[in-house]
Write a structure and sequence with these properties.
Strand order of the largest sheet: 4-3-2-1-10-9-8-7-6-5
Shape: globular
Strand content: over 45%
Radius of gyration: 14 Å
Mean pLDDT: 93
Low-confidence stretches: none
Amino acid sequence: LQTTAKMEQFMGKWKLTKSENFEEYMKAIGVGFASRQIANLAKPSLVFSEGDGGLISMKSTTTFKTVEIKFRLGEEFGEITADDRQAKSTMSLLNGKLIQSQTWEGKTTTIEREIQDGKLIAKCIMGDAVSLRTYERED
């Protein structure tokens, strides 16, 4: 059984401080040129919180857009992504990593989030395109 207690390390507010290879990753998942330009400039804040009945919220906020997903570990949910893809996602905890599997139009991308040295590292994987995005805690 996956408990929300293991989610504790992710809870709180995070700010993007470093982004590597994000352009290639966005190309791989099919994000258009204009959207990629905006996304590359954006420095999202990420907020993890827990709501009623163990529902976990992950809210990503930029000056352009706010996207929030609510999920229970191991349960599939519908998601409209920041680039307006309609996807089905599942979040699971594996060895301390929060792994998001996102499927749309027969494609799948994986986003692995983990805490390393007090930073939240998001590894976005689509085929050969891998982007590392580093977030630091905000008070």
